[in-house]
UniProtKB/TrEMBL annotation:
Protein species of origin: Ramlibacter agri
Span of domain Aminopeptidase N-like N-terminal: 74-190
Residue ranges annotated for the Peptidase M1 alanyl aminopeptidase C-terminal domain, each copy included: 561-890
UniProt KW Flavoprotein keyword: no
Keyword terms of this UniProt record: Aminopeptidase, Hydrolase, Metal-binding, Metalloprotease, Protease, Zinc
Domain of life of the organism encoding this protein: Bacteria
EC category name: hydrolase
Protein name according to UniProt: Aminopeptidase N
Entry's EC annotation: 3.4.11.2
Length: 891
C-alpha cells in the first residue's frame, strides 16, 4: 500500500495519548518547490498513561533536525512515524524542536500544504497535518498555536493563519512576514494557512454584547463581485447562532478563503475557513438559485462548527458525527429559519429528506454500511459519508423532538437549546464523544422521553442500517375504533446480523374521507410492535404517518390510491402531502418496471394524471412545492425499491412517464410557465427561486412534448429564453431543457454557452456536468464523456472538474453508465485507478459508484464485479480505494 496506516483501526482500541502538547510555535518559509517548517513544541507526559516512546506522525516529509531541550537527540523513523525514546522522565514539560521540508507544488492529493493557482493552502482534516510537520496528529491532542509565515511579498502579499494577527512587516530580499496567535486551544486538524494574491471583502459587525468583529472573505482578483452573498450568509450565520443558541463569535476576526482546488466543500479551521470556490462565489450571471442556497447552507455549516466542532471537538475520528451530524442539523435549522414561511420551511425539509433517501438509504443497504458512530476503519477519509452527516443530523433532530417535555415546548426546541447549553458548560475546550452529547441533552431535560429511553436511543449511534416500520391498520366499524399497529425491524448489515429495537418518534394524524383533520400527535415506538387505538369515529379515517419525516426510517404501509389522493389534496402536513404524490408516482413506476410492456407503450392512468394536474392548477400551493410534487422519484430511489435492478429499464420507464406528463398536461405546463417565468429584479429568496424552479420544470416538459410532435415552437422559445435570460438560473434551465430533450438546437446552445462563460470555471463545471449527465439514447453518452475528457478545459487534477464529468456520468447517470456492453464499467475502473495515483480521496468517492452492484440484473452484475475485481487487483492502491473495493467484494 502506498501510504498511511495499513491496518484496520477499531474504536474499542482507543487509548489516550501518552503525551500532551501544550503549545506549538510554527515558522514557515514558504516556497512552492521546497517549504521549510520549523516546529517548536512544549510537551509533557500524560500521567495517566504508562511511560513509553513518543511517536509523531509524518508523511512525505524531509527531516533535517530534531532537538530536545535545545540539544540533539537520537530518533528512529518507522511506519510513517518519528520515534523518540530518549526523553526527559517525570511530568515536567520539555521543549521539542523539529525542522522539516515539504513540497507543496507536487502535492496533488490536496492534503497538507499544497499550491493552487500559485497560492498556498492547507487541508488538515482528517490526517493532513502530518504532511506538514511531525506531530501527534489526532483530534484529542489540543494545543495553543503561534504561527509565523514568511514569503516573497510580491508573489504572496496576503499571509493568513488561525486566530489574531499580532505582528507583520518587511524582511530582507523582498520578503515579508505575518505572525498569528490563536487564543483557543485546538487539535491539529483545525490548523490552516493561506498565502497568495488575494483580494478581500470586509464587514465589521457588532455582537449583542457590543463587541466588534471583523468578517473577511478572500478570493482571487477578479472574483470580488461574487462575494456579497457569501458575506451576507456569514453575517446571517453569526446573528442566527447568537439568537437561537446564545453562541457568540469568539474571535476578533473571522475569515473565509476560496480556492478552486479542494477535495471537499469547505473546512472549518478555527477562524480561517477554507472553501471550495463553489460554495463562495455567486452573482446572478454565474450562479443558480441552487448555488445561492448551497452557499448559504455551507457558509452557515462551517461557521456553526466554530462551536460544534472547534470549541468542543471529537475525542477520536469514530466520533465524527459528534461535530458533523450536529452541525448539519444546525445548518438545516438555519436555512429553514431563514426561509421564513411555513411552506418554504417545508420545501427545505423535503429537499433534505430527498438527499437522505437517494444517497444515505442506499449506503445503509450496501457494503459500506456503517453506524453513525463507526466501529472500525482502514482509511478515515472514507467515513465522511452521508451516514455520518445526513443520518447523523436526523439522529440529532430526533433528540430535539424527544427533548420536548411540556406542552409549552411541543417541538423540543427549548429543551434542545437547554441541552446544548449544558453540553458546552461541561465540555468547552475538550475532545469528547457522541455519548457525552446525548447525555447532556437528556440531563438537561430529565422529564423528557429522551432521558427516559436514553440507553435505547443510543442504538441510533451504534447500529447500522435503515430501520423499517411496518404499519397495519384495522377498522372496527361496529365499535367505531381505528387501530394502528407499528412493527419495527432492521435488516442485517456487514458485521451486524441482529438489531435491537430503536427509539422511533412517529408523528401521525388522522383525516376523514373529505380531508378534514381529526387528530394529530406523536407516538414514540420503542418495542418491536405496538398498537395504538383511536375510538369514537363514525367512519374509517385516512392515516397520515411519519409526518415531517419524524425519523429516518422506511415506512411500509399499503396505502390505497384513494387514501393517497386524499392526502395529496388535503393533508395539513406538507411533507406527507408531497410524500403522497411520490408514493403514487413510485407505485406506477414500479408496476411498469416489473411489467413486460415496452416503455413506449406505457400509459399513465387518468386518476394520477388528474392528481398532478390538480397540483399544477392549485391556487394556494407555492410554486416551489408544486415543482417538488411534479418531479418524479429519482432513478436511484426507484432502484432501491427493487430486489433486482435493470437501470436501463428504470430509466426508460421514468422517461416514458415524464413524456406522458409532458404531453397530457401540456396546456397546464404552458400556463405554469407563463405565470412564473417573470420575477422582476433577480433575488434568490425562496418565493422567487420557487417560481423559477417551476418555470424551468414546465419548460423542460414543454420541450419534451414538442420532441414527439416535432413542434419547433417551444424549443425555439427555450433557445430564446437561453439567449435573453438575465440570470444563470433561467439561462441554465433553458439550456437543460434543450439538452435533456435532445433538441436539434442543443449543440448550438452548448457552443454559445461555452463561449459566454469560458473564463468562469464554476459555470464550465455546469456545462460539463449537463452533458455527462444527459439522458442516454442508444448509448450516445459514454462517447460524449470521453470526448469531454479531451476538451482543452478539462483537468482531471481539479476535483470539481473531475466530478463534473466523471462523477456526473458514473454516479449520477445510471441509464448511461450501466451499459449492456459493460463499457461504462471499464471506463469507471480506468478512471478510479487513474485518479488514485493523483488524489486518493477523489478516487475513493468514485469507487463507490458500484456499491450496489449485487442488486444488478445479469449480465450487469457479473460485469460490475469483474470491474471492481480489476481495480482491487492493482498492487499499489491507496488505503482509500482499497477499503472501498475490498468491502464491495466481501461476501
Amino acid at each position: 500500500m502506498r501510504e498511511g496506516q495499513s491496518k484496520v483501526i477499531h474504536r474499542a482500541d482507543y487509548q489516550p495519548p501518552a503525551f500532551w502538547i501544550d503549545t506549538v510555535e510554527l515558522c514557515f518559509d514558504l516556497d512552492p518547490a521546497k517549504t521549510r517548517v520549523l516546529n517548536r513544541m512544549r510537551i509533557r507526559r500524560n500521567p495517566d498513561v504508562p511511560p513509553q516512546a513518543l511517536r509523531l506522525d509524518g508523511e512525505e516529509l524531509n527531516l533535517a533536525r530534531v532537538l530536545v531541550g535545545g540539544q540533539g537527540t537520537s530518533f528512529k523513523l518507522e511506519d510513517h512515524q518519528l520515534v523518540l525514546e530518549n526523553l526527559p522522565e517525570g511530568n515536567e514539560p520539555f521543549d521539542l524542536e523539529i525542522f522539516t521540508t515539504c513540497y507543496p507544488a507536487k502535492n496533488t492529493k490536496l492534503m497538507g500544504l499544497y499550491v493552487s493557482n500559485e497560492s498556498f493552502f492547507t487541508q488538515c482534516e482528517a490526517e493532513g497535518f502530518r504532511r506538514i510537520t511531525y506531530f501527534l496528529d489526532r483530534p484529542d491532542v489540543m494545543a495553543s498555536y503561534t504561527v509565523t509565515l514568511r514569503a516573497d511579498k510580491q508573489k504572496y502579499p496576503v499571509l493568513l493563519s488561525n486566530g489574531n494577527l499580532v505582528a507583520h512587516g518587511n524582511l530582507d530580499d523582498g520578503r515579508h512576514y505575518a505572525k498569528w496567535v490563536d487564543p483557543h486551544r485546538k487539535p491539529s486538524y483545525l490548523f490552516a494557512l493561506v498565502a497568495g494574491q488575494l483580494v478581500c471583502r470586509e464587514q465589521r459587525i457588532a455582537a449583542r454584547n457590543g463587541k466588534e468583529h471583523l468578517l473577511q472573505v478572500y478570493v482571487r482578483p477578479g472574483d470580488l463581485d461574487k462575494t456579497e452573498h457569501a458575506m451576507n450568509s456569514l453575517m446571517a450565520s453569526v446573528a442566527w447562532d447568537e439568537a437561537r443558541f446564545g453562541l457568540a463569535l469568539d474571535l476578533e476576526r473571522f475569515m473565509i478563503v476560496a480556492t478552486s482546488d479542494f477535495n471537499m466543500g469547505a473546512m472549518e479551521n478555527k477562524g480561517l475557513n477554507i472553501f471550495n470556490t463553489k460554495y463562495v462565489l455567486a452573482n446572478q450571471a454565474t450562479a443558480t438559485d441552487t448555488d445561492y442556497a448551497n452557499i448559504e447552507s455551507v457558509v452557515g455549516h462551517e461557521y456553526f462548527h466554530n462551536w460544534t466542532g472547534n470549541r468542543v471537538t471529537c475525542r477520536d475520528w469514530f466520533q465524527l458525527s459528534l461535530k458533523e451530524g450536529l452541525t448539519v442539523f444546525r445548518d438545516q435549522e438555519f436555512s429553514q429559519d431563514l426561509a421564513g414561511t411555513p411552506s418554504a420551511r417545508a420545501v427545505k425539509r423535503i429537499e433534505d429528506v430527498r438527499v437522505l433517501r437517494t444517497a444515505q438509504f442506499p449506503e445503509d443497504a450496501g457494503p459500506m454500511a456503517h453506524p453513525v458512530r463507526p466501529d472500525q476503519y482502514l482509511e478515515i477519509n472514507n467515513f465522511y459519508t452521508v451516514t455520518v452527516y445526513e443520518k447523523g443530523a436526523e439522529v440529532v433532530r430526533m433528540q430535539q423532538t424527544l427533548a420536548a417535555s411540556s406542552e409549552s415546548d411541543p417541538l423540543g426546541r427549548k429543551g434542545f437549546a437547554k441541552g446544548l447549553s449544558l453540553y458546552f458548560q461541561r465540555n468547552d475546550g475538550h475532545a469528547v464523544t457522541c455519548d457525552d452529547f446525548t447525555q447532556a441533552i437528556a440531563d438537561a431535560n430529565p422529564e423528557s422521553q429522551l432521558a427516559q429511553k436514553l440507553e435505547q436511543f443510543k442504538r441510533w449511534y451504534s447500529q447500522a442500517g435503515t430501520p423499517r416500520v411496518k404499519v397495519q391498520t384495522h377498522w372496527d366499524a361496529a365499535a367505531g375504533i381505528y387501530n394502528i399497529t407499528l412493527t419495527q425491524s432492521c435488516p442485517p448489515t456487514p458485521g451486524q446480523a441482529e438489531k435491537l429495537p430503536f427509539v422511533i418518534p412517529v408523528a401521525l394524524g388522522l383525516l376523514d374521507a373529505d380531508g378534514r383533520e381529526l387528530t394529530s400527535g406523536m407516538h414514540v415506538l420503542t418495542q418491536q410492535s405496538e398498537t395504538l387505538s383511536f375510538p369514537g369515529y363514525s367512519a374509517e379515517p385516512v392515516p397520515s404517518l411519519l409526518r415531517g419525516f419524524s425519523a429516518p426510517v422506511v415506512l411500509e404501509y399499503d396505502y390505497s390510491d384513494q387514501q393517497l389522493l386524499t392526502l395529496l389534496a388535503n393533508d395539513t402536513d406538507p411533507f406527507n402531502r408531497w410524500e403522497a404524490g411520490q408514493r403514487l408516482a413510485t407505485a406506477r413506476a414500479l408496476g411498469f418496471i416489473r411489467g413486460g410492456t415496452p416503455a413506449g407503450e406505457l400509459r399513465l392512468d387518468e386518476a394520477f394524471l388528474e392528481a398532478m394536474r390538480a397540483v399544477l392548477r392549485h391556487p394556494d400551493l407555492d410554486a416551489a412545492f408544486k415543482e417538488l410534487v411534479l418531479t418524479l422519484p429519482a432513478e436511484t430511489y426507484l432502484a432501491e425499491q427493487l430486489e433486482v435492478v435493470d437501470p436501463q429499464r428504470i430509466h426508460a420507464v421514468r422517461e416514458a412517464m415524464r413524456e406522458q406528463l409532458a404531453e397530457v398536461l401540456a396546456a397546464d405546463w404552458e400556463q405554469a410557465y407563463e405565470a412564473n417565468r417573470e420575477n422582476g429584479a433577480y433575488s434568490p429568496d425562496p418565493v422567487s427561486s420557487g417560481r423559477r424552479a417551476l418555470a424551468g420544470l414546465a419548460l423542460t416538459h414543454l420541450c419534451l412534448a414538442a420532441r414527439k410532435t416535432n413542434d419547433p415552437v417551444w424549443p425555439g422559445r427555450a433557445y430564446q429564453r437561453f439567449k435573453d435570460a438575465s440570470n444563470m438560473t433561467d439561462r441554465f434551465n433553458a439550456l437543460a431543457a434543450l439538452v435533456t430533450s435532445n433538441n436539434e438546437l442543443a449543440p448550438q446552445a452548448l457552443q454559445r454557452f461555452h463561449a459566454m462563460f469560458k473564463n468562469e470555471a464554476l459555470v464550465l463545471d455546469k456545462w460539463f456536468a449537463l452533458q455527462a449527465g444527459a439522458p442516454d439514447r442508444n448509448g450516445n453518452i459514454l462517447p460524449v464523456v470521453k470526448a469531454l475528457m479531451q476538451h482543452p478545459d478539462f483537468n482531471i487534477r481539479n476535483p470539481n472538474r473531475a466530478r463534473s464529468v466523471i462523477f456526473s456520468y458514473c454516479s449520477a447517470n445510471p441509464g448511461g453508465f450501466h451499459r449492456s456492453d459493460a463499457a461504462g464499467y471499464v471506463f469507471w475502473s480506468e478512471r478510479v485507478v487513474e485518479l488514485d495515483a493523483i488524489n486518493p480521496q477523489v478516487a475513493a468517492r468514485l469507487a463507490r459508484a458500484l456499491d450496489r452492484w449485487r442488486k444488478l440484473a445479469e449480465p450487469l452484475r457479473g460485469a460490475a464485479r469483474e470491474a471492481i475485481a480489476r481495480v482491487a487487483a492493482k498492487p499499489d492502491l491507496s488505503n482509500d480505494v482499497r477499503e472501498v473495493v475490498t468491502r464491495a467484494l466481501a461476501d
